[in-house]
Every structure is written in structure tokens, then in C-alpha cells.
Amino acid sequence: MNDESKKVNENSKNEQLEQFRSTDNQDKELTTNQGLKMSEDELSLTAGERGPTLMEDFHFREKMTHFDHERIPERVVHARGFAAHGEFEVYESMRPFTKAKFLQDPKVKTPVFVRFSTVVGSRGSKDTPRDARGFATKFYTEEGNYDLVANNIPVFFIQDSIKFPDVVHAIKPEPHNEMPQASAAHDTFWDWVSQNQETAHMVMWLMSDRAIPRSFRMMEGFGVNTFRFINEEGTAYFVKFHWKPVLGTHSLVWDEAEKIGGKDPDFNRRDLWDAINMGNYPEYELGVQMIEEKDEFAFDFDILDATKIWPEEDVPVCIIGKMTLNRNVDNVFAETEQVAFHPGNVVPGIDFSNDPLLQGRLFSYLDTQLLRLGGPNFHELPINRPVCPFNNNQRDGFSRHIINKGQVAHHNNDLANNSPYTVSEAEGGYAHHQEKVEGSKIRSRSESFKDHFSQSSLFWNSMSPAEKQHIIDAFSFELGKVKSKDVRQKVVDMFANVNMEMTTAFAVNIGANPPQQGGEEVTKSSPALSQQNTPKKAMSRKAAVLVTEGFDGAKVKAMVEALQAAGVQAAILSDKLGVITGADSSKVEAKHTFLTDGSVAFDAVYVDGGKHASQAFEKEATKFMHEAFMHYKPIAVTNDGGKWLENEKLDNAQGVIIGKDKNNDFTTSFVEAIAVHRHWDRKTV
């Protein structure tokens, strides 16, 4: 590919989308969808001033009909999503392992579109439930669209996709009363879990902090299924895909997630939107785990089992490129809602394995889009169109945009010189990897799929003490909502096979009998699974700066400058919006108040107060600090803030920074505390 073609490939998706964007309506004449200028848009055509509306009012009918049909069926799962545009660059050529062109040249920037989502809740639910998250990426490559349809959890509930309707029906609101929304904390889900022990590993992840991510920007993505890389020589490698957030992988505290859901149900989508608008572009490195075909059976787990991970200590993750999200969508419906992902959208060099969950997904995703997007032509929607030419003899159907010319719409023709024609694999045509397959027609699964607990135990063993306690608390909350004592007991008996200490702890909390016997003890761990070992950066985090009239101008100025220098967003918060004047006549503008934003909206808090602080301000600031303290967040104080902190006996704790006149490291210590994210060794009060 020459430099000119690289430039065309890099810009083609933006240019293509541009032609479909409507221009600003400012100073434009109002017309119908047929281009007819209208003289009135607020009154229907009637027979007299008090008469009936006339059927001949075509403008009313067009406007109302369009409104009546504005909604399309929401996704059965992943209904609540948010998305952004970006670009992907490979670090170095992956030619030894795959012939996929977008993984060859570090100079080529491949356009991408990424949709993040919750799984269980409806489109109108909140961003912060305990749930898995979708992480779907569409690469607009010169060879066609490639979709990496991932989750933020590397395993799934089931091994065979035939069970997918069952797990979704079980975890969705119960059909007799349509409750609860966006939650697994109810009888039907846990009844299903207790009857399907292959769920154990996924449930462990679901009960962990991974199920309540701090933001989409701090969330890992996993391809879950086993795919294949194919190189030019035809050599195949089994592969799993990983997205590693540059900011590290971080989570909310459960109490914090619940409160955020009430205060700001759009918390995660707002975070992504604001970050991109501010230039804090989310970055993720693409990693791959690869296993040679000859080593398919070399491990103590089946590499085709979607309820299993490939431990990174056994199969290292090789970082091969980086994705940057740098542009928000222009229209959520046209882009985020209408984008159609499908794991069957691949390019030469990427192929499938016999993973039974993947095999079912290859049917289900395409089938779903036919209903949601009104027929087989959803690929013509701007957000789904490839950047490369596409030609075939498929015709007609709902919402056809392309106007095909000519009389020929069949393959193997003489009238059009057999166009469009196929090309060989050597010329870039896709050819499936040749694999010998034989066997009797059966409904059975390999014995190697029957170990449901060893990796569940590995996950537990890999957690830090704080993460383990959060898992126990999550089980206690979820099962505490289950009304059936029989279901609760069956879940206890099931998870005794994972870890006796954990299961005994939550059994006591939910009024069940502690387990009497556990499974085979597993001592293996994988440090890569613990968020305690993730990168920790202060960049792009949000710190609340609490001040009121008479604040210490010099100290506040020094803190704000230090935070901004570290890439931390400093938000001035007070008891009212507007300009606040310091004791030295310096001024800051408060854009947040105690009413509009609680401590849960921020990663850290700095409190200076002010000489003219009212009792109401003192009360609210103290409550703000106390809640941040309970959520293990870093707290910095000067002046009145220090006094209020001491009154609450919150001083002398990990992550609490007290500013003294001679403490030159005050701001530096606070920034370092913010980078840590949570101070789990703190004793809460």
C-alpha cells in the first residue's frame, strides 16, 4: 500500500459518514421529507376553526407517522449502550501470525467505532448496576469490516449457545411482575445458576468488583471466545483477544454504585462523553494470547471452553497495538442504536474455532439485526457501511438504499462477463481454514468441559483481601434478595466447591446452612486477575474542591494547579453556584453544589472551607468527606477542612492528607493518593 492509499483509507470513513450527516437547520426553510416548503407547522388542516382534522393534511400525516415509527426494537441484551469513534494502530507487523492487513503496517490508522453497554437492563436503565459490560469494536479495514464483539469479563455463563435464551430469560426481570430491572438479585436467576454449575466461574466475576467498573475508560475488554489467526502460509494459531485500558482497570464501591444510579444514571456515558470533549482520549492496548495448534490439548483446561480463561501466567498476553477514542457520536440513534455488530464479520487472517458458544453466536447476531433494523439491508446504514467497495448480487428487501443498474442479478453469468467475480485466496479472497472434521451426529460435550470449579477457585485465590470481602458482600446482597430458601441453600452447596471460607461467610449472612463439605482444594492463583495489580494513574480523574466565602486563596490555587498539572480535573464545589471570593480577594467559580453533585461523582476530595463558612456549608462538607472516607477515596484538607476532619475522627488514616504550613509535599502526596484509586487498608468508621 502506497502513502496515498494509506491516507485515503485513514480518512475514508469520516468522509463517508460526512455525506450522510444533515447540515445545521439554522436559517433553513422548513420542508416535508419530499422537499415541499411548508407555510405552517403548528396547526392541523381542519374543516373550520372548530371542525375535524382533514385526512388530506399530508403534512400532519407525514410528521405524525414518522414520530410514531421513531423507535425500533431495543436489543434483547446490551440495550443500554454508549459509543464513540476512534482509530487503531498496530505497533509492529503481525505477519508471522496473521495475514489480516490492518495488523501489518504501523503507519496505517484504521477507523473504529466502539459501543460499550450493560447487558441485562433495558435501554432506560442506569449505567451502574452489577452486571457484565459489552465492549464491541468495529474496525473499518480496507478488506472489509471486522467486528471484535467483547465483554469486560473474559468468560461466560454457558458453554453451549443453545442455553443462551435460558440464561437471559432467567436474569431478566421476572415475567409475572417485570421486576427487578437490571439486576440479578432475584429468584429466577439464582435458581438457574444452582441448576447449571458451569456458571460458577462467570458468577464469581459477576460478584467481583469487575461488575461495577469506575468508567468505560478504566474497563478491560475480552473477546471471550477462541478464534484463529491464519498467516500467509496457512499456519493457524488459536487466539484470544484482550483490550487493556491505559489508565488501568478500576471499579466503584457497591454502595457508591447504588447512589450514583440515583444521582446520575448516565454516569458512565457522561464520563466518556466529557473525557473525549476535554481531549482526555480513552486509550486501550490490544493484546493477544496465542496457542499453536499442536498445543491444543497441552493445558489442564479446554481452550475451546468459554467458561475458562487462559491464565496469563501460562499463556502470556502479547500487546500488539493501541486504540484511541477521539470523537463522540453526532447522533446516538443513527450511530449507537443502529450499529450492528456480528462476530462473523471477519477479514482474511482471522477465522473461527469450534468453541460451541462462538458457533451459536455466528447465527444469533445476524438473526437479531434482521428484526431490529428492518431486514437484510442494515449494512447500508452509514454507521455499518464498510470503507472498501462492496459488490454482490443480493437485491431488494426493506430499506434498500443502493440503486442497482443492469439486468443481471445472478452469479455465473455471461451477460455481465460473470461480474461480480470471485478472487482467489492469494488475491485477497477469504477462504476458511481447512480443518478435518468428522464424527457422529450427537448432542454431547467433551469430558474436558466438565470441570466447573477449578478456575472459579483460581479466581478467588487471585483476589486481594478487599476484593474477597467485596465478593462475599455481593453474594450476601444478591442472595439476600432471593425469597426461596431452597434456592439459597442450593447456591451455598454449589459454591462450597469453589471455596469453603467464602461460602460459609455468605451462607451465614443469608440465613442458609453453612456447607459441610467442599470440593477439591485448588491452590493455584493468577495475579493478573486482581485489580490490585493494575496500573494506577491520577490522569483524568476527578477531584472535588470544597470552598466557600473566605477560602484560603493561596492554598486552593496551589492545589488546583497541582491537580491540573497531573491531569486531574479539579471541580470547584460549594453550597451555591457562581463566583466565590477568597480571604485574599481571589475568586473562583463554583460549577457544582452539594445538591447537584455528591461525593460519589468524584474520585477524591480536597476541603479548605472558608472563614465565612455557614453551619449549613460545614454540615454538608463534613457529610461529603465522611461519604468519601467510607468509599476509601483520598481526602486532602487545609484550614477548616482539617478541623472538620478531626471532629469526625477521620484523620490519621490511609489516604488522608493534611496540609500543614511546612508540608511542602502536600499537593504531591494528594496526587499520589489519587493515583492509588482506593485505600483499602483504611479503617472505616
Strand fraction: 15-25%
Give the biggest beta sheet.
10 strands, antiparallel
Roughly how many Å apart are the termini? Answer: 63 Å
Look at the structure and name the CATH superfamily of the largest domain: Catalase core domain
Our count of helices gives: 17
Q: Which secondary-structure class do the elements indicate?
A: alpha/beta
How many discrete domains?
Answer: 3
Task: Please mark out the parts with pLDDT under 50 across 5 or more consecutive residues, or reply none.
Answer: none
Question: Could you give the count of β-strands?
Answer: 18
Oligomer: single chain
Helix content: 25-40%
CATH topology of the largest domain: Catalase HpII,  Chain A, domain 1
Description:
It is a single chain. With 685 residues, this protein is of the alpha/beta class. The protein folds into 3 domains: 81-380, Catalase core domain (Catalase HpII,  Chain A, domain 1, Beta Barrel), CATH 2.40.180; 451-532, Hemocyanin, N-terminal domain (Up-down Bundle), CATH 1.20.1370; 537-676, Rossmann fold (3-Layer(aba) Sandwich), CATH 3.40.50. It has helices at residues 3-18, 58-68, 164-171, 187-195, 200-206, 254-263, 267-277, 332-337, 356-372, 454-462, 465-480, 485-495, 500-509, 553-565, 615-630, 640-647, 666-676; strands spanning 81-90, 110-118, 133-141, 144-151, 221-222, 227-230, 236-245, 283-292, 318-328, 350-352, 542-547, 569-574, 578-581, 587-590, 592-593, 604-609, 635-637, 656-658. Strands 1, 2, 3, 4, 5, 6, 7, 8, 9 and 10 form a 10-stranded antiparallel beta sheet that branches. Strand 3 and strand 4 (144-151) form a beta hairpin. Helix 4 (187-195) packs across helix 12 (485-495) and helix 5 (200-206) runs parallel beside helix 10 (454-462). The chain is globular. It is an enzyme of class 1 (oxidoreductase). Its EC number is 1.11.1.6.
